[in-house]
Amino acid sequence: MGNQMTEMLKGTLEGIVLAILARRSAYGYEITAWLRDRGFSDIAEGTIYALLVRVEQRGFVDVEKVPSEKGPPRKVYSINAKGRDQLAEFWRTWTVLAERIEQLHHTDNQQDQGA
Which structural domain range is residue 57 located in? Predict the structure, then answer.
């Protein structure tokens, strides 16, 4: 991933992780693996763990410690009502932003074609 992609991703990663957790509960490594499987190969596991700490502190997720076959218990994260509200706000903001960016892109393409 290029530097520009990394910077853009930083601003949206919280919403992306909440969207993943809206599908099902997961622990940090599962989230990282899911993202990597979908082309976000440069995401560091530490980035996801730091983000999970933030969303937990902000009250967007519930956490359950589940025994692990290897090592200490895993923290499994589940989105809660406050997190669903935050996710809904993320999607509203994303939609508006994406529409405005698309308008800019469309306008630039028309200018490039001499329209």
Answer: 3-111
Helix (H, G, I), strand (E, B) or coil at 109: helix
pTM of the model: 0.85
Per DSSP, the three-state class of 78 is: strand
Q: What is the CATH number of the domain that holds 69?
A: 1.10.10.10
Cα separation, 41 vs 23, whole angstroms: 21
3 confidence band (pLDDT: 50, 70, 90): confident
List the beta bridge partners of residue 64: 76
Give CA angle at 60 (1, 34), nearest 5°. Answer: 35
Structural domain count of the chain: 1
Sequence letter at residue 96: V
Which of 85, 28, 35 lies closest to 59, judged by CA?
Answer: 85
DSSP labels, 44-72: -HHHHHHHHHHHHHTT-EEEEEE--SSSS
